[in-house]
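User: Hello, can you help with two protein structures?

Assistant: Certainly.
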Amino acid sequence: MAKRDYYEVLGLQKGASKDDIKKAYRKLAIQYHPDKNPGNKEAEEKFKEATEAYEVLSDDQKRAAYDQFGFAGVEGMGGGQQDFSSAFRDFEDIFGDFSGIFDTFFGGGGRRSSQSSSGLRQGSNLRYDLEIPFKDAVFGTKVEVQYSRNEACSTCHGTGAAGGSGRRVCSTCGGTGQIRRSQGFFSIASPCPTCGGEGYVIEHPCRDCGGTGTQRKKQKIMVTIPPGVEDGKRVVIPNQGDAGPNGGPYGDLYVFIRIKPHEYFERDGLDLYCAVPISITQAALGSELYVTTLDNRKIKVKIPAGIQNGKMLRIRDEGIPSGGRKGDMYIKLMIQIPTKLSKRGRELLEELAKVEGEDPSPQPISLSELRNN
C-alpha cells in the first residue's frame, strides 16, 4: 500500500507549527497505542505510521528535506523505520518515560537497524550530497567521491572481541537487551543500561576498535551519474554505507544530486532552452545562424524574415537524452538594438524609415495577441 503524506497522517496542513505537530501526534499515539488495542493490527500500523510522520516533521532538517523532495528527501537521513528514538526525546510530558516503545514494534531503539536473513544487523545507510555541472547532469558522468564510514575492524573481523575471547549473556537483562517496567496501562521497554541493548557483553574488547567491531575510515568510490538526471534525485550505491555490528552487512550510500546552473541553458523536463541575439537586419531580412549546442557542436538555424523579438524556434532532438530518446532545444530570439550607429548606418536607417513609413501615433497591442505570442 502506498505511503500517505506525513501531514495527512497527522491531520495537519503543510505550514503547521511544531506545537500543532506535537499535539496531533499525542492524540493519535494515545488512540492507537497497542497496549490500548491488544491484538488490533490496524491500530498498531496506525501507531507506527503516526510515529514515523512525527519523527520526520518534528525535526527541522528532515522536515525541510521532506517538504522539498517528499519521501525521497528523508531517505538515508534516519527517516522512516530506522531511528525512531528521537520521536520521544521531548515527549516525557505525554506519557512519562516513553523510551523503548520502538524496541517492541520496530526491532529496537536508535541503536538498532534492519537485520539480514542471517540475523546480523545491517549497518546504517549514509547520505552524500554531490554538486555536479549542468552539462554532466544532461549527458551523464562518473565522479569520484570521498567520505568516511564505519568499516569492520580488521583485527577482530567485526566481532569486537579480542582474539581467543568471546562474549557472554548480559546478566542484567538476561540477553533480551531490554529492561521493562509498567506505568499505568503501558508496558515501557528501554534499552538495557549494562549492554546498551545488545543482550550480551564482550569479556575482552578488541584493543584496536574498543569492542565496537568497527573502525572509522575514509572511503573513495566512483559514482556513475546517469544521463538526464534531475536536481534533487538520488543514486543508491549498495553496500557502501556503514558496516553492521558483529560482522553484519554494510548499509547503502545515498548520493543526492545537486546541479549547478548553466550560464546559457535551462531545462524543462527533457527540453533545453537558451536565448540567442540577432540584429535588426537579420530579423527583418531573415538569415542563417550557427548556434552552439550544449555539447559544443555548431548547428545551422534558419531565421524566417520578419521574425519578431522573443519568438521561439524549436530544434528537434537537441535536448536531453533519456530512455533512448531526446528532448528538443528551444531558441528564444532576442533582437539587439544598436546603441551606437555610424554616420552611414544612421543615414540608411533614416532612409528606411522614410521609405517604409512610420506611425507617429501607434495604437496599443492587444493583450490577447501578446499572450498568444
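That covers the first. Now for the second protein you mentioned:
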Amino acid sequence: MYSTVRNLLFKLSPETSHDLTLDLIGAGGRLGLNGLFNRQPSFPVTVMGLEFANPVGLAAGLDKNGAAIDGFSQLGFGFVEVGTVTPRPQPGNPRPRLFRIPQAEAIINRMGFNNLGVDHLIQRVRASRYKGILGINIGKNFDTPVERAADDYLLCLDKVYEHASYVTVNVSSPNTPGLRSLQFGDSLKALLEALRLRQEDLAVRYGKRVPIAIKIAPDMTDEETVLVAHAIHQAGMDAIIATNTTLSRDGVENLPYAAEAGGLSGAPVRDKSTHTVRVLASELKGKMPIIAAGGITEGIHAEQKIAAGASLVQIYTGFIYKGPALIRESVDAIASTIKRAP
C-alpha cells in the first residue's frame, strides 16, 4: 500500500510532498489511526541511561517543528528526534532546495535549517501525547557568526532541556555556512566545554541529567574522525551520531540533480556512514555509545550499522522510499543479530 501512496506523492514536488506527508502523519497521530496499521516492534535497549522501546529511531530533519510527534511515534519508531531547531525562526534557503534521485534511493537537500524557532517547537512538544524517548536537535541561526555559535546552542539547550529525553547538537549540516568548522580544534573544544558546564547547571535546576549527543559529518578523514571522537569523549558528552549528509556525489554521478548543491542522503552515503561508525567504535572501545544514521534502506543495513559498533540507528531517506515497513524490518534484523551473538 505504501508504494502506491509514495508513487502518488512523488508526482508532486519534493517539498510539497514532504509537507503533505507531515500533515497526513500528524493527522493520523491526532486521531490515533497510525497505530492501527503499524504496531511498535518491541526490542528494548538501554543507551545513555535511557530505555528505548526498540533501537530504530526517526532521524532529525523530517519533522523540524515537532508537527507530527504523535504520528511518527505510532508508526513503530523506538524513538523520535525532531529539529533541527534554531533560537529564532528562519525561512532557510530559497526553493527549490530538495531533490529526489530515485534511481539511487537518494535525496539532496539544502534546506538551511528552515524552522519556526525553538519556542514554537516547545509548544508542539507540550501538545503531544508521546511518552517515549524524544530527541531534540539544536543548531545555530544562519546569521549568527560562527564565533558566537555557542550562544545559540546554549540558548536552545536552556529551552529544550526540560522537554527532551536527549539533546542533539548539530555541528555537521553542510547547508549553514561555516557550521562544519565547529567540528574541529579549539572551536569544537570551546563549544563542548560550554555545553558541558550548562548541562551541569541545568541538571541541578531540573533534578535530572539530560544526555547530549553530537552529530558529525561523514566527510572527515579517519584521522579527523578520531580527533573529534576524543574531543567529544573527553568533554563528557554522552553519544555521537554518525552521520549527517555528505558533500560527496559518489554513487549519483551523471544522474539528474546530482550537480545540485547540498547534502546527499540515502543509499549513496551508506558505506561512508558505516565506515565512520566503525572508526569511532574502534577508537572509543565502548566508552561512548554511537547512534548510526545514513543509508539504511533495508533491514540488513541497520544490522550492519549495529555490527560496526552502533547501539542505535536512525532512518530518514530510507523511510521516504520504503515507508513504515522499514522500521519493523530493521528492528527484526537487529534483534536477530544480537540474539545470534555469543
